[in-house]
Structures are given as C-alpha cells and as structure tokens.
Amino acid sequence: MTFKPSNLFRYPSSVVVSIFGFLFVFSLAQAEEPEQRVFFAGTQSCRACHQEIVETYVQTAHFETSQLADEHSIQGSFASGSNTLKTGNPNVYFRMEKRQDGFHQTAYRNEQSTIRSRRERFDLVMGSGRKGQSYLYWKDGLLFQLPVSYLVASGKWTNSPGMIDGQIVFDRFISPRCLECHTTLFRAEIKGSKARYSSRFLIGLSCEKCHGAGSAHVDFHKKDLQETEGRSILNPDHFPRERKLDQCALCHSGAAKPIKPPFSYRPGEPLSEYLEIEPVREGSRPDVHANQVGLLRLSRCFTASDDMSCSTCHNVHTEQRNLSELAQKCMQCHRTQECGTATKAGVSVQGECIECHMPNEKSNLITIDSGEEAFFESYRNHTIAVYPDVADQVLQRLMQK
Asked: Cys staple from 103: which of 122, 164, 282, 293, with CB 3.0 to 4.6 Å?
C-alpha cells in the first residue's frame, strides 16, 4: 500500500477570491477607525487594581472561549488508542498527533490501495471546553476550521459541527464575524494585493470586550495612584437597560446581518447601528442557541420590569453553574407560596426555578454528525415562562426523594 501526502483537499480558487474580497473590505473599514479606539492593554494589566475580579473572571467560559492551542488548552487525548476518529466511510479516518512543532490533525483517505493524507496544525482553540471545543489552523494568513472537534458529552473526538461524517473538509473559512464573538480583537491587513488577518489579535474575551480599550485608563491610574474613580474606562453597570442588553446581544442574538464591520462596535453604543437583528416575536419558536436576548424579551419577568437585563441574573465576572444559587435570584421578586408546584412538593422546589422555568432544550443550530446518529447540544431556553410538561417532570423527581 502506497502512502502519499496530498493536496486534494485544498480549498478551491473561488473560495479564496470571495474570502480575500471580504477581508479586503474589512481591512479598509478598520483602517478608517480612530487609532485611539484600538489601544488595548490586556487583562493582565487589570490585576494590579482588580486582582480578585480578574482571578475569578479568567476561570469563566467567556474568558476561555478562545485560546492558543497547547497541551493545556486542548482537551482531547493524543494517547495511542484515543487519538483516532474513525468515520462511517471505511476509507476515511483522522488521527490527532503531538509532534515537535505542535499538535496536528491528519486526515487519511484510502484510494485504490494508495493512502492520501493532509495534515494541519492545531493553532487556536475555540470554545471554553464546557460543552466542547473546535480548532482552527492558519493558512496563508487566514483561519480555517479543522474537521475534527472534541465533544465533552462523549469525552471523545468527533466531527466538527455541521460537517458530514466520512468527508474530509479543511476549507471552512472563519469569518471576522465568527471571531468577533470568540475573541477580543482581530484585525485584517493588506499585504500586497491580498488581505489577511493581522498578527495583532487578542484571544479570549478580555475585560476590554465589555469595558472598552483600556490603555488610557491604565496609563492614567499608574500616574495618579490616589484617584479612586475610574477614568477613561466604561462601566456597563452604569449603562441604560437597552445598552446593557446590546452588550450581550452582540454575541447572543443569533445570526445577524452586519451593518458595520465586525469589531467596530464599542460598548455603550446602540447595537442597531452595527447589526440588523431579527426580532423574536410572540408565538415564534426560535432556536434556544439563537437569539437568547430576544427570547428573554418575551418573558413576563422582563416585560413587567423597567430595569431587568442579563446582568440581573448573570455576574460575568465569575462562573455560575449552581442552579440552586441562581434560583435565589428569582426569590428576590417571587414567593415560594405563589408556585403551584411548591404546594405539592414543599420548600424543596425553591432550588428548581431554573429547571422549571428555563428548561434545557436541544439546539438545531449545533448539530454533530457522529457517524452513528446526530448529536444535538442543549441550552437553556431564555424565555422565562411556565412549561407544564417540564414542571410535571420536576415534581415527579422531587416527590421521589
């Protein structure tokens, strides 16, 4: 059997043309930005004055939503026996390997007793790893998704979301809009006649994603240690409700049509000037991983309040995975005796508000073809409401305790 490295899986020229055209416009638009708007200091610069907040924030899914690929950030195993993904096509498989120059994915295809292959390196990790991770590689200054991802639910390598089992796909381009929600800053630049991503980027969602570029703030307070009021920095807690919601809707509003280039939005500005977001209407059934802010707007809790926003329940500076603790947020406005389930199950229902009124539902947007069956990841429905079937299931579970 003959083994040959192959370029058969190279992306087509038509794809390259459209990509370069898109990035060319993106890079020109960025060049028009006032230079002072893009001076980022980095999260580590915040530690000197905000150490406690930084210590908890760097452990959150937001901060870890993208990382450089290394032995600490990649969750999948490279050990023999655990580093191979077999597909439903007996002639196609993938192997994950650690080499001297980093970690690699290699695709193999058996074609009439000749094994052809393509190898690309893990360069960036996308996803915090709470549900899974996908991986990107650099090619000619552009970023593309690797065909194999890691799924926490199975603890194994799997086909990347949306990819078809048994096929070898290395040409899924990662657009600036994708990067806008998984990184703090990515710029494009023109090299000769071609546009490409710049080496000037900040991965993860740093403090400055929500507070704005912070170098002027850091410089000011280094010179004036006595000043206790934050200067040259934005505090989203002081934004009006709609601007607070915009902050989250930048990435939690599902597919949206860009009006201005990605990474041009600044905290506190109306998001409607940057993205055209389809509103969620009463009676519609949007995907739970789509417009989460729009789903929240349908909630009676939201419409009955003048100031409720995402931060009413979420503290972005720390991990919040304890549903009983989150349920206590509900107790600030609601009483246990108002709950019909509580009359049957007693006070134990106090920790079940999230399970009952924001149930986990499968997303059709995040679909993984495992070769055996499709896997659909689940997310919380952010329309806070009464779900009778879910309430019955919770009641049965509580009554069995």
From this structure: 122
Instruction: Report pLDDT digits (tens) over 263-299.
Output: 999 999 999 999 999 888 877 777 888 899 999 999 9
Whether residue 149 contacts residue 361, with contact meaning beta carbons closer than 8 Å, is answered with: no
What's the domain range around 145? 2-233
Identify the three-state secondary structure at position 371: coil
Q: Same domain for 315 and 205?
A: no
pLDDT, tens digit, for every residue of 112-130?
A: 889 999 999 999 999 999 9
Strands 2-5, 114-121: pairing is parallel
Q: Which two tokens stand for residue 37?
A: 């708007």
Q: Are 378 and 323 found together in one domain?
A: yes
Say if pTM beats, i.e. exceeds, 0.85: yes
The answer to whether the CB of 65 falls within 8 A of the CB of 128 is yes
Please check whether residue 161 lies inside any domain of the structure. Answer: yes
Looking at the structure, do residues 210 and 306 belong to the same domain, yes or no? no
Measured CA to CA, the distance from residue 292 to residue 310 in angstroms comes to 10
Cα dihedral 294, 311, 176, 212 in deg (nearest 10): 140
Q: Which residues contact 212 (CB under 8 A, 6 or more apart)?
A: 233, 234, 266, 267, 268
Residue 181: partners with Cβ closer than 8 Å, 6 or more residues away? 65, 250, 251
One domain for residues 210 and 301: no
What is the dihedral angle through the alpha carbons of 355, 356, 362, 366, rounded to the nearest 10 degrees?
Answer: -60
Residues 107/118, Cβ–Cβ less than 8 Å: yes
Phi, psi of 259 (to 5 degrees): -100, -40
Structure tokens belonging to residue 183: 């990184």
